[in-house]
Specification:
Distance between the termini: 36 Å
Helix content: 40-55%
């Protein structure tokens, strides 16, 4: 990815898709190359369908767990084991899973970034640590609000 010539939105997608060209091309074919992201829901739905984003209802811990598995599997990171603790379901369980994922990916040189759509769903992506700052800058230029896990996934 360091040698990439993609810019702006295409580069943002490339970072989210961890450089997998087929996934990048699928997203760009579906979404296009906007200057500003007007439809974050459509973008995240497309990325999630390819296993490159979390886009889950705030109470749906089962779907969230499945999406987390797809996300880590798409990167060949090994199986992520969701915490088996309380709460058993709902938003609290979702936050516990996301906190654990953020901690689990960090030593694997990834960062989890929450994408704030100001709705009642969880939206997040994984980006290689070395591209974290570039991703944040691209997100700002595209009008996307990002948050760290610490800002979002509280008890």
């Amino acid at each position: 990815m360091a040698q990439s010539k993609r810019k702006n939105f295409a580069r943002w997608v490339e970072l989210v898709c961890d450089g997998y060209d087929d996934a990048v091309e699928d997203v760009l074919e579906t979404i296009g190359k906007p200057r500003k992201v007007e439809n974050l829901f459509g973008l995240l739905e497309t990325l999630q369908g390819l296993g490159h984003a979390i886009d889950a209802d705030i109470k749906d811990s089962d779907s969230l767990s499945s999406q987390v598995f797809d996300l880590t599997d798409a990167r060949g990171m090994g199986p992520f084991e969701a915490p088996m603790s309380d709460p058993p379901q709902g938003p609290g369980r979702c936050m516990a899973i996301l906190r654990a994922l953020a901690a689990w990916v960090a030593p694997r040189d990834y960062r989890m970034i929450d994408l704030d759509d100001e709705d009642d769903a969880w939206h997040a992506v994984l980006v290689r640590a070395e591209y974290h700052e570039e991703f944040l800058a691209l997100s700002r230029s595209l009008g996307l609000r990002t948050r760290t896990p610490e800002q979002v996934y509280e008890d």
